[in-house]
Recover the amino acids of this structure.
């Protein structure tokens, strides 16, 4: 008889946060080929989890129905062709296409990293998706180089928290953020942001132009979409890069958008996503993270703010907290 495990499930397949529950009859995965079976200690929440729960996220075919893309835990077993350097019992954290909201997950060893003793289980579970996404957006897509300026929208989001610190550490000329409160702006400044703009009360694109003497920003990382599209075009510098990672503020552009800015400023607008990338691409990003960011995390030079840790039995409350947009850092669930 096949082994079962507990995992977070969704009543009727999709629904609100209150539709989440722990199902004790989910089939326990078996590691194949280059995979390892991980007994999950903690998993991190991400915005895509909310969208997937509601049926609005393009889930890759290899993901399966269980939510969650980042986790920490211990290795229980391997498939037939696992990457060298790992053994049964190792403490690890990593990225997955899906399935992290569960007692066990089978995931490619190419997406695992050894958990440093300096990081708690909770901190480690909050690193993979956010820090790898920030690295990808900033370097591979945005083509960041020391001396360039950068704007991180949703400054207190976990991806931008990582991005602010990466930008400062790699000698950005200026690191700007937008956020919904002065408290969040002050938090971003404590991480290294040069200045911040409250999108409720300030015309951030106009103020950026004033602050930069009309030059604008070299790289803009955006999660908002339609509502910020014209503002991003206005605030971008000549030869600027605008990287779109989400459309939380809408996907349909309003009338009157002036696209002549693209050729007048020689702008490049590029969308990107991490979850749809192949294993080799994600593995290369893992290596970049392990080489450049992990040493600073171990030394405490990079912060991994955790807003709140929930026992996974409170998954409904965890999703509701993320929906409130009141957080400054990761929301983590722990499996006892």
């Amino acid at each position: 008889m096949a082994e079962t495990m507990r995992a977070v499930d969704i009543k009727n397949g999709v629904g609100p946060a209150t539709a989440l529950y722990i199902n004790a009859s989910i089939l326990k995965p078996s590691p194949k080929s280059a995979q390892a079976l991980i007994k999950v200690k903690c998993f991190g929440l991400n915005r895509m989890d909310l969208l997937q729960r509601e049926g609005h996220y393009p889930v890759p075919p290899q993901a399966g129905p269980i939510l969650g893309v980042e986790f920490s835990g211990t290795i229980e077993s391997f498939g037939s062709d696992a990457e060298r350097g790992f053994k049964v019992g190792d403490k690890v954290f990593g990225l997955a296409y899906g399935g992290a909201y569960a007692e066990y997950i089978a995931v490619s060893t190419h997406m695992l990293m050894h958990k440093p003793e300096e990081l708690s289980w909770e901190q480690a579970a909050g690193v993979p998706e956010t820090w790898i996404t920030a690295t990808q957006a900033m370097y591979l897509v945005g083509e960041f180089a020391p001396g360039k300026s950068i704007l991180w929208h949703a400054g207190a989001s976990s991806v931008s928290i990582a991005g602010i610190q990466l930008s400062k550490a790699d000698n950005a000329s200026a690191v700007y953020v937008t956020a919904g409160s002065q408290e969040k702006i002050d938090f971003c400044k404590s991480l290294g942001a040069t200045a911040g703009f409250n999108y409720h009360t300030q015309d951030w694109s106009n103020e950026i132009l004033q602050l930069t003497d009309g030059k604008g920003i070299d790289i803009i990382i955006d999660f908002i979409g339609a509502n910020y599209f014209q503002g991003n075009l206005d605030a971008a510098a000549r030869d600027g890069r605008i990287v779109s990672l989400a459309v939380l503020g809408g996907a349909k552009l309003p009338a009157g958008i002036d696209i002549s800015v693209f050729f007048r400023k020689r702008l490049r607008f590029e969308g990107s996503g991490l979850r749809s990338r192949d294993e080799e691409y994600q593995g290369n990003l893992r290596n970049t993270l392990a080489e450049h960011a992990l040493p600073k995390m171990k030394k405490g030079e990079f912060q991994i703010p955790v807003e709140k840790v929930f026992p996974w039995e409170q998954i409904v409350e965890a999703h509701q907290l993320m929906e409130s947009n009141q957080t400054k850092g990761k929301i983590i669930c722990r499996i006892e």
